Amino acid sequence: MNSGGKVHMELGLQVDDSRSPYTVLAVKGEVDVYSAPRLREKLVELVSEGHRQIVADLEGVDFLDSTGLGVLVGGLKRLRSHDGDLTLVCTQPRILKVFEITGLTTVFRISGSVDEATGGN
Amino acid sequence: MEMSLELSVPPRAEYIAVVRLVVSSLAIARRALADDRIDDLKLAVSEACTNAIEANRGTGGDAPVVVSCWEAPERFEVCVADSGLGFDPEGLPAHPPVTDPDRLNFERGLGIPLIRSLVDDVRFDSGPEGTAVWMTLFGGPEQESGDETSEILRVVISEQD
Description:
The complex is a heterodimer.
Chain A: E1 2-3, E2 6-7, E3 12-19, E4 22-31, H1 36-48, E5 53-64, H2 66-80, E6 85-89, H3 93-101, E7 109-111, H4 114-117
Parallel strand pairs in A: 4-5, 5-6, 6-7
Antiparallel strand pairs in A: 1-2, 3-4
Helix pairs in contact in A: 1-2
Chain B: E1 2-9, H1 16-29, H2 35-58, E2 65-72, E3 75-81, H3 111-118, E4 121-127, E5 130-138, H4 151-160
Antiparallel strand pairs in B: 1-2, 2-3, 3-5, 4-5
């Protein structure tokens, strides 16, 4: 998006709570130090609203850096302290690679689809 | 080695996307790297810029972050320089193993380990005047000749001669 000649990256954050007990958060765009705070705020908001089984759908994410990883780790920690969990949906090799090289594939449950993550078909 | 681009950006997070875009576009346009290495380049440059911005802001000033790209046959080098207070790249705390429950307490500090994993060579020139992170990626685009030996491997082998 463009306003006043500045480059703005808007992070898409869409919540679907129709798959109880799961809440699906679809993330779209580039997650870096500029946009990650909005992801953090959304996760904090969802947890404070009582959502405990959150599925972060990263299929629409074009770029994820260490700040984004940090926010997801923070979200996982927050949810686990409330007996909840954060599951990721990701099949893109370029994004999976970031989890792999940081060893975080063993920390998160990573699913191939939202249906798989929410126990559906 | 020849400098092909120099960018000077304000130390603000919103500019990192611009740097990522410009540096990766240059590497693509020059066919400097294979496609899958472009993602490595983007992420490494992004991580270095994130640290540089934080370093410059740590001084309370508004000094720009300077990003330069250097090209030579079969190598693409990017330097990200800040005017911060410097740091000891060897003195960073190690993360606990991923199986350790304490691992979840480390939400930050992944940037430099990521850079080290993504690029073929990295050098930190750090002092009280600032830090320059030099990142090198070897290899041109994938060859269509069916040569089994990758560009990277050939460069490594030739350097050992």
